[in-house]
Each structure stands twice: as C-alpha cells, then as structure tokens.
Amino acid sequence: MTDPQQQPPSGRPDADDVEQRACPKCDAQPGSPCRSRGGAAASAYHTHRFTLVFRLKKTLRVPTPADRGPGRPWRPGNPPPTPLDPDLPGADIRIGYARCSTLGQELDSQLDALTGHGIPRDKIFSEKISTRVRVRFEEALRTAREVKAHAPHCRVILTVYEMKRLGRDAAELTALADHLTAHGLILEILAGPLPGLYDPTGPGKLLFAFFAAMAETERENIRESTLEGLDTAARKGKHGGRPPVITDDMLHTVLRRRANGESVEQIQPHLRIATGKRAGKNPSVASIYQALAEHAKREAYPEAVTAAHTDHTALQAAGGLPGQGNAKASVSLAVPARRP
Questions:
Q1: What torsion do the CA atoms of 204, 210, 212, 213 make, to the nearest 10 degrees?
Q2: Are 189 and 157 in contact (CB under 8 A)?
C-alpha cells in the first residue's frame, strides 16, 4: 500500500496523478475527489480510477488527502491545468503603457521609445491623467492577464518608459510589482535607474524597492520646488492660469461706450475674444459685468485710501483722535493738586 505522505519519484503526490483522469465509477471529473454513494467525498479513490495510473496498478488503496475534505459533502474541484507541450515554441509578448499627468504634456517621447523597442502602436495603452484613476492602465493589466491565460508558455511583459509612470509612491510601486509577479507577468523599464526586466527574486526585489523609494523622494522634491516657484512668481506679481477673457482694450471700449449711454447688452455683440479656445467669439454678458465690477474695486481702492488719510489728518489737527482725550485725563490725574 502506498503511503499518502510519501512522494512518488515524479515529485507529485498520488492524488494529483489520480485526479488527472475522470473516475469511471462515480463520474468524478478530473481535479475532483471520488464521490461516495451518500454524496460525500470518498475516504479513498476508487480502484477503477487509480489503477489507470501505470505506477499505481499494483497499489491496494490510495486514500484521499485531507485537503480534499474526505467525509464532507462532495464538491467539484478545479480541473488540472493542461500540460504544456515541451516542443511548443515560446515567445515574448510585450504590452506597452505610456502616461503623462496633464493634457498639456506630450507622450511622443514615450511612444517613440516603446515603438523603438519593438512594441506595435496597437499594443501600447496611453493616457493623459493623474495616477489616482488610470483607466487605460487597468486595461493594459487586464489584457496582459488575458494573454498570459491564453498563452501560458509565453513570457508576457508589461513595458513602461520610466518607473514613475506606474505609481505615486514606493508602496504603490511595490504592490504593483507583487501583483504582476503573482499573475506570472514580467515588468520591464526602459529608462531610469533600474532599466531592464524586473527580477522578483534575489537582489532584484531589493533594488526595485530602493529605487521606488528614490522615485517617491524625487517626486516630493519636484513638488516642493514647483510650489516655491509659484510662490516666488506670485510675490513678483506673476500669477498663473489662463489669460482673462476681457482684456484692457476691451474694458476701455466698454467704459467709453457706457459713458456715451450704451448698455452692456448693446456693447456685447461688438466685442471679440482675441485668444484661447473661444477666439473670435463674443464674450458673455456675465464676463463683461464681472470685469466692470473688478475695475470698480480697483478704482475705489485708491480713493478709499486717500479719504482715510484725509480723515486721519483732520482728526489729528482737531485733537479728536481716539485715545488722546484719555491720555490727557490720565496725565492730569497723575499730577497731585497743590495745597493752598
């Protein structure tokens, strides 16, 4: 009798070899244990089934392993994977991914690098979006998993230009690398501190974690430098953003024609936007009123400052500034009265 704990010469337990075939007695399909008459998982495989294995023909009994749940209600198992043909030629299947954070940035350099690496354009997933929600990246991962499932004998490689195109921080990059490894996928980086194929074993994993942390530090430095630059430009009066719809020339035209008695609604059809996506179109009435309100605030501010200085000078000359009378009273109270 074969010991269930003893491994056969092939290195596989007896149960795996037996479950490669269906049972001719209970009709249990490959990958499932045998089924008893009461509907439970049998404590041992039926003789008609395990004798189909050549090396088990003279075995008297092959018990069902504990992980198959003998004595419990029978449930079908997972069918065994189809054995690969050793003569089947293997190949590398690459799927590319390119990303930039904003619409103003270009993907041409990444696309050219991926194409030059032998990846067709129809196998490159690209998007212009931040790393929080990446629809095309999820499509690339799903495609890679599907290709691996249909061609398990091939190496499926997810190729990116730089490591920072994959995630925002070291934890996200490491989790992604583990996910690729769990699904049998390979990560390839074309540029940066860790070019080449990512090796999930040995020192390759340590190097990847180290450079992922370096990429996160570099990202934080770039962010801080950008904020400092914006703050310096703001102190110099340079503010970012798109140019205003109502330019100074348009505002002067509106003010001049309003002074002649025309309304904003009458002036609006004669104005044209000079630049931007709406170049050549009329500005909205709301934009004109907003520009007039901002102009009124700018004009009222110097007048308010001048009026405040005038009032302060007048009060100081009249001795009516707050606190002066109290100061005089406190001085008079501090000097003692002379006795007669």
A1: 170
A2: no
User: Does residue 44 register a pLDDT over 90?
Assistant: yes
Per residue in 116-169, pLDDT (tens digit) is: 888 888 889 988 876 567 788 888 888 988 888 888 888 888 888 887 777 666
SS (H, E, C) the chain: CCCCCCCCCCCCCHHHHHCCCCCCCCCCCCCCCCECCCCEECCECCHHHHCCCHHHCCCCCCECCHHHCCCCECCCCCCCCCCCCCCCCCCEEEEEEEEECCCCCCCHHHHHHHHHCCCCHHHEEEEECCCCCCHHHHHHHHHHHHHHHHCCCCEEEEEECCHHHCCCCHHHHHHHHHHHHHCCCEEEECCCCCCEECCCCCHHHHHHHHHHHHHHHHHHHHHHHHHHHHHHHHHCCCCCCCCCCCCHHHHHHHHHHHHCCCCHHHHHHHCCCCCCCCCCCCCCHHHHHHHHHHHHHHHHHHHHHHHHHHHHHHHHHHCCCCCHHHHHHHHHHHCCCCCC
Structural domains of the chain sorted by starting position, each given as residue range(s) with its CATH number in brackets: 1-78 (no CATH), 92-218 (3.40.50.1390), 248-314 (no CATH)
CA dihedral in degrees (20, 24, 28, 31; nearest 10)?
A: 0
Written as one letter, the residue type at 125 is F
pLDDT > 90? residue 250: no
pTM score: 0.42
> Which residue shows structure tokens 């200085």?
309
Both tokens of 192, joined, read 């940066």
**CB-based contact 58:97 (threshold 8 Å):** no
User: What pLDDT score does 80 carry?
Assistant: 67
